[in-house]
What does this fold into?
Amino acid sequence: MISAVVYKKSINHYGEEVCGDNFQMGRTKDSKIIVLSDGLGSGIKASILSILTTEIISTMIEKGVEIEEVVNTIASTLPVCKVRGIAYSTFTIAQIFRNGTVKIFNYDNPLPIVLKHGELYKINFQEKIINDKKIKISTFSLNPDDFIFIMSDGIVHAGLGNLMDFGWGTENISNYLKRMHRRTRDIKYMVDNLVELTDSYYGFKPGDDATLVGVKITEKPRAVIFTGPPLDPKTDNYYVNKFLNFEGKKIICGGTTSNIVARVIGSEVDIKVDSGTKGNLPPYGDLKGVDIVTEGVLTLKALNSILTDCKMNMFEVDINEKDMNAAEKLFLLLRDCDEIQFFIGRKVNAFYHNPALPFDMSIRSNLIRDIVKNLERLGKEVKLEYC
Amino acid sequence: MKIKVCVGTTCHLMGSAAVIEEINNFPEELMNKIELSYATCFDVCHGMMKPPVIRINDKFFENVEPENVKEIIENYMKEVPGAD
It folds into this structure.
């Protein structure tokens, strides 16, 4: 199953408070839809124009209108500026299907850049004229770890009349991205780096709003978290098998829980001696067939506090991948997922009620409730199963 | 001699990290005899043993602290000749 991690960064026209580019993401049953619109001019007028466009597109898609129909509607209704003869806003739509098919609709924005297996991939576009507007449409397929970069013309024109005659252009940007791809596959790093460079080409006084949306194709967009031993030990086998047969990333949070899974599969948990214990968290480890094994309540509590720090999306928190504790590792695994399933064991650890414990050990289910609330707020689809 | 330190929730809260740090600071001579690893939970703390718990070969020891861990290990080596 294919999905995508999406990260966007914008810089505003110099002196403007708001960005004239707008970005929105939508979802249908079998696909993820990314919309970027660039409003004519800059400032609040451009901002309103671009928000209108993305809002119409994503609302129509969410209501189940076919994407071709949406493009038709937008192209037929988008007004054209009488003075300059260009449309009030331009847009790019990328639709990524679960089977790896990608559809791109582009109207007057710079063409998206695609990296397939680390090489530049030339997209073949078909042109369709709707209401005198030339819409470029393309369908192709991508694999995990391929990239799409969607941008507004502010990125492409950086350096225009300043450092370069015609801006640094799509070709240079493509080559820059390709070189960067050899060093890192971190979408946030790639986008931040390129936007920063764009800003510097403008001499840090951008002559246009510039937005770059990075899309990294991923597999396993689902994760399952098994935390806490089932209430009835007779059901252990049933839940462990259900957990192991889940299609996606498998996470265990809890010592006793990991022992139960290890016992059922006849293996042993290997806690890494050198795993990070920053912030006084217990170390984490591996188990055959499982992506990560961590301690339970303390790690989940730390995870919840990172999630609480994220206001709009999970890219706001910077994590140093060279020195991660269990909670940060979990956070990164979940960041790449769309759907998260919890198996929550209801058996109570008697020792947690011991008054000798120096810490406040809130009940697992309360903690999970907070985590679920945060994950949903950050756009994840969460399912719970109590066992 | 195999030493397993529990890093489960309760053992961690009761100070197993400090015990690990203490073991890692043992003199080299003693360290060479030890094979240190971590365990998720021995499931012995539920009303039976007081955390932090460590296991030396097959024997569990409760209420281990940085102050007494060296003594526990040395006593074990005396009790079980050839354990190292």
In short: The CA atoms of residues 36 and 269 of chain A lie 45 Å apart. The interface with chain B takes residues 254-256, 258-259, 269, 271, 273, 277, 280, 282-283, 285, 293, 295-298, 349-352, 354, 357-359 of chain A (CB under 8 Å). Chain A has ten helices and 18 strands.
